[in-house]
Amino acid sequence: MKNKIVVAWLLLVTVIKFGYAQQQPNVLWLLTDDQRYDSVGAFNEMLTGKQESELGYVESPNVDRLAKMGTTFINTYCQAAGCAPSRASMISGRYPFKSGVYEFEYFNNNAAHSKPTLPEQMEKLGYQTLHIGKLGVRLKTIKDNKVRPAKIFQTDIDFKQLRRDGLTDWGKDWFYEIDGKKLDKPYKSLEFFVTPEGKFEYISEAFEKDFPQHKGTGESTMKKYDLLREYNKKKGPMTPFSAGILSGVSPQPAGKTRDGYYASIFGDFLENQNKKFVVGSRTFKGINTSKPLFCQIGFDFPHTPVLPPADYRARFQKHDYKIPEFDKKELETMSAQMKKQVKSSYSDDFTKKEKLAMIQDYYAFCAYGDALIGQTADDFIAYSESKNQPWVIVYVCGDHGWKLNDHGAVSKFTPWEIDTHNPIIVVSSDKKAFPANKVVRDYTEFVDIAPTVLSAAGANLNDDTFSYLDGFDMKKVASKEAISRDYIVGENHAVTGPRAFIRTKEYVFSMQSRPSKKRGENMEWARTASYKDLDPCLYETKSDPNEVKNLAFDKKYQKIALKMKEKLINVVLGDGRVEVAWGKKADGTKVFRSNFAPGAHDYKLKLEK
User: What is the pLDDT of residues 361-400, one digit of tens each?
Assistant: First the structure.
């Protein structure tokens, strides 16, 4: 009896503090990986009036259906065009320059500036929290005087163990045992395919030398799965051991790929109400029907390896595509940092056949993923409605985009439109909050996801508990209650080196933000560095939609470039910037700050030539 009174009292305190009294909705957050916005027909229709991409045919009936059911925030941009920093901005609700996560570094929740992540806040609001698939958030904590991984979801069905159990079509992992024999030392990042019969086909040049019985596996799998890998002709021909797979066919049928298992595992979770169920070598608890659900499913598609199932691949091979053309004159004005990314993933020396295959398989993979999005959304809605519970779906089209020979390269990591434009759809059983078939063209950012979900869950965002959040509730953006942004901002350090960007409806400006990646050193370098040393880049997006001609040194645009530069410096470097030391001699708790322009990030920027 005493325990029941305590629980009731705690619930009452929570209601008063966070401000929720009505029934909380189940929330499903769907996130894809490296997905271009033009892979979704509904987005193309909103942006260009045509269902097809400028490159050609795309297929997305399920995401198109979600767009009709809910509200599309078509002008959403990511905060960093790299997996880890982008996902950190989403799950923390903070810009990279506020969280201190700029690249693939680990970060520590014991640091002075650290705040609870979105799933941790949802747990406090009474939710059962679940994650399936790829998370990509490198959060650590200090426990028992040791730095350890931090658990932020109550249940985490991660992709690493799934692939070790063979519940995938492809994987890359450390192996301590091969063919039933324990190894003297583990093979790091050993690539493998899994056949329908459950056989592992290992691929590694060093591995084949040590295990003669597996010699030739790389060559045979390359032919068997028709693989196109990243390579540069100047560095030599493509081999079975070259970098990421840009084109090929999955060894598994639809539904049995790594993403297919994410969708089916979610279905099993919903079916096994208040009881346990088995996933590979592990056992998990199914859904707790006494609590509202917050679930994030991190799909891997269409991230490399791009391996659509055979039936999808065959269908898309019937379609021809316009291959993005690259004029090497673009390199003459391209910023040095962005040129670095292009050279690191250069694709314009691929043959026309290779480029076409790369594009066909990419859109085929997205089409397959669309079917899985539909499956998970339908299962989620069916469960919620069977319990007469309200629900919300947040679909995020990629943690960033992906180039398909745009600017002569593949991959991401730059401020270009194709790398950073990632629309979001919010569908809700509450049609007043997120009206059906509504398109919002005001700017939104990935930092808006956390406050949107928390608000839907009943949190009072005006409470000091949530004052650290950098974004807006997208419900208020849709209803015009939020401040209208004149610009979006972001910063990425991977591949290019430290580079910040600011985008308005007419222009996008980017520059080198730091002299190096050394955290806390020369934080205000950009304030006194010469304009040339900032490696500036300015595109006028209306006259140059593909962002090819850098106008940063054009005298006609100097006034605009300098004003954007000043705003960007003040926002990302001077308005509460945080950097965190992490490495062999640092545990991620030492914080460096810069705050020479407090309040600079006011979302307002008027530009005139």
Answer: 999 999 999 999 999 999 999 999 999 999 999 999 999 9
Asked if residue 12 is part of any domain, the answer here is no
Where in the sequence is the domain holding 474, given as residue range(s)?
Answer: 20-156+292-346+359-478
The sheet that has 200-203: what strands, in order across it? 170-178, 181-194, 200-203
pLDDT tens, position by position, 84-94: 999 999 999 99
Give the C-alpha separation, 43 to 74, whole Å: 7
227 and 363 in a single domain? The answer is no
Longest dimension (CA), the chain: 77
Is the CA virtual torsion 308, 309, 311, 312 positive or negative? negative
Residue 10 pLDDT exceeds 90? no
Q: Are residues 445 and 474 in the same domain?
A: yes
231's tokens:
């390579």
Q: In terms of Cα–Cα distance, which of 508, 547, 540, 509 is closest to 526?
A: 509
Domain end residue (candidates: 417, 452, 478) = 478
- Residues 121-138 pLDDT 10s: 999 999 999 999 999 999
**Domain CATH for 556:** 3.30.1120.10
Q: Which residues of 55-72 are buried (b: 16+ CB within 10 A; e: fewer)?
A: bbbbbbebbbbbbebbbb
Whether residues 25 and 118 share a domain: the answer is yes
Alpha carbon distance 303, 316 (integer Å): 18
Domain-embedded: residue 540: yes
CA distance 441 to 478: 9
| pLDDT digit string, tens, across residues 463-510 | 999 999 999 999 999 999 999 999 999 999 999 999 999 999 999 999
Mean pLDDT score of the chain: 94
Same domain, 309 and 450: yes
How many domains does the chain fold into?
3
Question: Do both 454 and 585 map to the same domain?
Answer: no
146-149 and 139-143 strand pairing? antiparallel
| Whole-number pLDDT of residue 12 | 46
3-state DSSP call for residue 526? helix
**DSSP assigned state of 167:** -
Q: Cα dist. 249→147, 365, 366, 379, 404 in Å? A: 40, 10, 13, 27, 18
pLDDT at 183: 85
Please say which residue of 434, 459, 478 terminates a domain. 478
- Confirm whether 268 is domain-assigned: no
Q: Do residues 419 and 510 lie in contact, with contact meaning Cβ atoms separated by under 8 Å? A: no
Is residue 394 situated within a structural domain? yes
Q: Which of 342, 253, 268 is nearest to 547 (CA)?
A: 342
pLDDT one-digit tens code per residue, 418-428: 999 999 999 99
**At 524, which helix (H) or strand (E)?**
none
At 537, the pLDDT band (50, 70, 90 cuts) reads very high
Q: Within this chain, do residues 409 and 494 fall inside the same structural domain, yes or no? A: no
